[in-house]
Amino acid sequence: MDPLGRPRSPASQAARGSRWADRNFYLLALLAALTILGLIALVGWELYRGCHLALAKFGPAFLANSSWDPVSDVYGALPFIFGTLVSSLIALIIAVPLGVATALFLTEMAPQAIRQPVITVIEMLAAVPSVIFGLWGIFVLIPWLRDHLFPWLHSTLGFLPFFSGPIYGVSMLAGGIIVAIMILPIITSVSREIIRSVPNLQREAAYALGSTHWEVIRIAVLSYAHRGIFGAAVLGLGRALGETMAVTMVIGNRPEISASLFAPGYTLASVIANEFTEATSDLYLSALFELGLVLLGITLIVNVIAQLMLRTFSGSSTGKT
Amino acid sequence: MSADSYNQARPSISQQARRRWVSRIVTALMGLSALLVMTPLFLVLYFLIREGASALDWHFFTQLPKPTGEVGGGMANAIVGTLVLLGMAAAIGVPIGVMGGVYLAEYGGERTNDVIRFTADVLNGIPSIVWGMVVYAMLVVPFKTFSAYAGGVALGLMMVPMVMRTTEEVMLLVPQSYREAGLALGIARWKIITVIVIRTAMRGIVTGVLIALARVAGETAPLLFTALGNNFWSHNLSEPISALPLQIFSYAISPYDDWHRQAWAGALVLMLLILVTNLVVRMLSRGRPQS
Fold first, then answer.
1. Residues B118 and B27 occupy one common structural domain
2. What stretches of A105-222 show up as alpha helix (H) in DSSP?
3. Is some CB atom of chain B closer than 8 A to the CB atom of A52?
4. Domain residue limits at B31
5. Are B29 and B127 contained in the same domain?
6. Is the CB of B43 inside 8 Å of chain A's CB atoms?
7. Do residues B101 and B193 both lie within one domain?
8. Does residue B289 surpass a pLDDT of 80?
């Protein structure tokens, strides 16, 4: 019997059951969606909790201190911030022109028959795990760089401070090159999406004025899409900053700040990867957590900027791999 | 009008020729960069096969790693470990990711959805090593041991935003009229979603899950201080467990030639695993409009 005293029909019972199921299903879905917000809070909180010791001991000076000496419990983040920024910058300098040019080739020039295979190859490149690039870097790339490219750079551009000094093979430049390879796919595919969204009318107008192929690309396509392409580059930067394994395997892992790109460096991500399980004192571990927090902070800012730029450009989500 | 002023008003022939040449050169450079971008993949695959295939034998799949200095041995435990970790990651990432996608596609208002989507995209950009630290603080410190659970959770959490975004996308592709037909028949909302919408979008959802799995299968950084690695069989999920990427990493940076050979072999196996998954994905998504 229901509250009004009517006999309960099987139909209304079923309706009540399904309303109950409906509500719970909705709540489950809501919970799952809110997990995303929970996750970002969890990441920030756990890192913050992990580094309170170092925060209390060093304060903001942590960021500006360039010595990293676990033996005497002195920790500074500067060499790692420097290494992370420099290796990512090298990666961007190499990957952005190549990636954008490839995206232009795919959208503006390549015949249909070539387009799909090239896209497939680039997607496969994105699927190669970092550790495999690292392995290849150690045994193939580094020897080649050491014996061919670096000596050549040294003899032709050696008057610049970046390309002087002894050559070891493992180096900031090697780290930058391997990261460049790894961010090429995302820069290419996001720029391609952006360029594809340029209206054809733009191109036709430029052609009608008698432009050559390159002029069409420059005037109609690039000037229209440059904001979005910038977003793609920033997204690539976000990936480059956090790249861990491959960089750790080729960058040389020495916490030094050197003008020469042939000198070994160290990044935030690789020092965490290398020293986390060996951190013997609480302060040491805490300092590593603080490096993690710094890394998280930088990548969050960069990613938020990238997402905002891509969103305002296309109104849709192009930020996924 | 004299011939002179006519020529001044029009660009000269040589100027036009120059423009055409610039265009040709730039076009050629773009084709060249496409070639250059593809080269690393071929180089990596070439060396994986050249160095890895010779080290790959039956023992590789059936034996445990040999102690330092002894030649031979295999990565049986790492292969099984990777599969176990992926299973656990899927158990966490798939339900949360799919249900979150359901919320975004079926329930959420525009504002909430924007916030959640944005956060998911930003989460996707968090370095994987950070996930390792977070799970270390969350599961390794309180339980005082590295464990397979911690590794699985780290990979699973990474999967959540990826699966959520792809699920939402394919569910939005299901025509609205399907849902309306269900409502007209008086079917409950949750049944419409599970029986009609999810089923129609199943292929796309599976594709998204496989892509996410292939991505976390190669992850090393989040496992370094969660699953840790293990040279023996793990009989218990609360013990450290080995994984292919971990084993490849520790062998690659070791000083022994035989371990380097094993690292190449392991990398070849991992790469094949990922490539096969990608092939399956391609076959599943064939026939759908190309993006």
1. no
2. 112-127, 130-136, 142-144, 150-157, 172-196, 200-208, 213-215
3. no
4. 3-42
5. no
6. yes
7. yes
8. no
Q: Which of residues 111-170 of B touch A (CB under 8 A)?
A: 112, 115-134, 136-138, 157, 160-162, 164-166
Q: How deeply is B213 buried, as exposed, middle or buried, from its count of CB atoms within 10 A (0-12, 13-18, 19+)?
A: buried
* CB within 8 Å: B129 and A244: yes
Is residue B210 located within the same domain as residue B256? Answer: yes
- The answer, yes or no, to whether residue B178 has pLDDT greater than 60, is yes
- Contact pairs from chain A to chain B, CB under 8 Å: 281
Q: What tens digit of pLDDT does each residue of A242-287 get?
A: 999 999 999 999 999 999 999 999 999 999 999 998 888 999 999 9
Amino acid B288: pLDDT: 53
The answer to whether residue B136 sits within a structural domain is yes
Count CB atoms within 10 A of the CB of residue A171: 28
Q: How far apart are CA A71 and CA A39, in angstroms?
A: 35
The strand pairing partners of B241, in sequence order, are B228
**B123 and B23 share one domain:** no
Q: Does domain A80-314 match CATH 1.20.810.10?
A: no
Task: Give the chain B residue whose CA is nearest to the CA of A19.
Answer: B188
ipTM score of complex: 0.91
Amino acid in position A56: A
DSSP code of residue B222: G
In a domain? residue B290: no
CB B252 within 8 A of CB B260: yes
Does A129 contact B44 at a Cβ distance shorter than 8 Å? no
Task: Kindly state whether residues B175 and B267 are assigned to the same domain.
Answer: yes
Q: Rounded to an integer, what distance in angstroms lies between the CA atom of residue B161 and that of residue B77? A: 29
pLDDT at A3: 52
Would you call A279 an interface residue with chain B, using a CB distance cutoff of 8 Å?
no
**Spatial contact of A135 and B267, defined as CB atoms under 8 Å apart:** yes
CB burial readout B83-120, b (16+ within 10 A) else e? ebbbebbbebbbebbbbbbbbbbbbbeeebbeebbbbb
Both B174 and B90 in one domain: the answer is yes
Q: Which whole-number Å values give the CA distances from A206 to A110, A214, A217, A277, A278, in the listed order?
A: 19, 10, 9, 59, 61
Q: Is residue B207 situated within a structural domain?
A: yes
pLDDT at A16 (0 to 100): 74
Interface test with B, best of A48, A119, A136, A184 (most B CBs within 10 A): A136
Question: Are the Cβ atoms of A245 and B249 closer than 8 angstroms?
Answer: yes
Q: What is the pLDDT, as a whole number, of residue A316?
A: 44
Q: Which residue on chain A is closest to B118 by alpha carbon?
A: A307
- Rounded CA-CA distance A236/A243 in Å is 11
Q: Has this prediction a pTM greater than 0.90?
A: yes
Buried b (16+ CB within 10 A) or exposed e, B166-198: bbbbbbeebeeeebeebeeeebbbbebbeebbb
* Window 81-110 of B, Cβ < 8 Å to A: 95-100, 102-104, 106-108
What's the domain count of chain B?
2
A133 touches chain B (CB under 8 A): yes
Q: For A214, which of B27, B104, B130 is closest by C-beta distance?
A: B27
What DSSP assignment string belongs to A249-277?
HHSB------S-TTS-B--HHHHHHHHGG
